[in-house]
Structure prediction request, 335 residues.
Amino acid sequence: MGRAERWEPPEDILPCFPDISGNTVNGLGENERRAPSPFFWHEPALQTHGELQAYVAQKMYEDPEVLEAFSRDPVTFALRPRGPDPVPVAADRVERGAAEWTQAVKEFALANEADLVGIARLDPLWVFEGFSIAEEWLIVLGFAHDYDEISQAPAVPGRLNAACEVGRQYTRAARCANSLRNFVREQGWPAESHPGPRAAALLMIPAAIAAGLGELGKHGSIINRTYGASFRLACVSTDLPLVADEPDVFGADDFCHSCRICTDACPPDAISEQKQLVRGDEKWYVDFDRCIPYFAETKGCAVCIARCPWSRPGVADNLVGKLARRRERRAAAAG
Prediction:
């Protein structure tokens, strides 16, 4: 399959971009490690791209089906309740060991809609500038898309399957995170939920990688060894004593170096062939300024997630095994 013809943005979106590039705000090309700046998914008053956010929201939510999937009010676009309201932290604290609590929160999450759960200790570099997270531990949650729905990306008039599927999974993620927050509080421990799609204090992808949910892919999304890139994230922060999971390195990063499927499939040509320096770390990075106009026109795009070979059901397990055998052959040849 060859490279898709380059898509050009409509003229009416261009005046919504501020003078500063979104890539600059994100720290593209910076040598020093730092916390991320509030950006496009934050409240408009906190970031530089508020006018652009309003344009994208209008495009995203002009269809009632998409509004309903994202649990948003049809007039204000404000989020409707997603899951239970917060409960107070119980006065009597339940004491257990870290391993026992880790098992308990994972079992609760998996029994309450989560498909993936991992634990990481909070790194301050995952907290957006101007925000704070008081709790020490992160319970990171993953929620798989229905592949038949997400595979129909991008959304176009009359076929909104992919956009609605993304909204449904963010809504499911919020329900689970809010339920898990309350479960922890009922045990007498502090906890806060961090659902998407709007951002607040926590940058979730590096937390999810540290928690063992997968490796960063060339398309800027995490690749999980079971669900590929086809899932969404939420998180709960807590002081409950927990045991951290290890990062899961199974070969996805190596695979991305030689795969061109998402780069060729990306209509606005936003996915780079090479890793780039972002806030002191060399990593895969998607060009925000190119991506977001197409994202707006197609109500969330998701082409790269849908086309990623890791996302097709049953493929990830085979790829993991193939990459493991390749590493074994290389090790044998080198030894």
Observations:
- The first helix runs from residue 22 to 25.
